[in-house]
Amino acid sequence: MIRVAVFDFDGVVLESTDIKTRAFAQLFDGNDRALAHHLEHAGVSRYEKFRYIHEEILGISYTDEDEQRLGVRFSELVLDEVMRCPFVPGARELLERRHREARLFVASGTPEEELREIVRARGLDEFFAAVYGTPATKAEIVERIVASEGVDRSEVLFVGDAMTDLLGARAAGVPFVGRAAAGEPDPFAAEQVTTVPTLVELDAAWEQLSADPPPVP
């Protein structure tokens, strides 16, 4: 039985992944290695990626002032677009329906304060028991939820669209479903993972997944 469902946000609830990819490209002047690092580490804190890009790719020091400057600029580039972008098909409908049956949570790589602002502005806060972002990792967030909710790990479902999400579910020992959008590279192609193209299909499979949860990845 699914008693708790944990959702990544970008690419799972909102179609906001490309917005943040464009912002990284703009922030680092189209540097191919910087953009590749961002894409390869989807779901990781933007600040961890800023540091790595500065120190390992650009070969320059990374200061507290750099962190603040890049963080402010990144938010300026993405926030208005994220507030207006479409939902992943079926996402809002699933949340409206399933929050009455299970406790729903967000576990995102977005800074927590900014994430909560977005959730409120998009009218989603009534559906989630809690909204968690960085600096906590996905595994840390799931562990916190399992402890606070007092559920068995088999009763938790993590829904994500990146390897960071899969690895977080694996580290926390909970079942996982991946969102692999049609026409896009499947991040889980090399893994034995149940995937859905949108949340329409996840909603349709909810009862089946609740009765027969996917294995821990």
Topology summary:
Blueprint: E1 4-7, H1 17-27, H2 32-40, H3 46-57, H4 64-84, H5 91-98, E2 103-111, H6 112-121, E3 130-134, H7 138-149, E4 156-160, H8 163-172, E5 176-179, E6 194-196, H9 199-204, H10 206-211
Parallel strand pairs: 1-2, 1-4, 2-3, 4-5, 5-6
Question: Can you offer a commentary on this structure?
Answer:
There is one protein chain. This protein has two domains: 4-15 and 86-211, HAD superfamily/HAD-like (Rossmann fold), CATH 3.40.50.1000; 17-84. A six-stranded parallel sheet has the order 3-2-1-4-5-6. It has 217 residues and is of the alpha/beta class. The protein contains ten helices and six strands.
Order of helices and strands: EHHHHHEHEHEHEEHH
Bin the helical content.
40-55%
Beta content = 5-15%
- Read across the widest sheet, the strand sequence of neighbours is 3-2-1-4-5-6
How would you describe the shape?
A: globular
Structural class: alpha/beta
**Which class of the largest domain in CATH terms?**
Alpha Beta
How many domains, as an integer? Answer: 2
Poorly predicted parts: none
Q: Considering the protein shown, what is the CATH homologous superfamily of the largest domain?
A: HAD superfamily/HAD-like
Total number of helices: 10
What is the end-to-end distance?
18 Å
Number of strands: 6
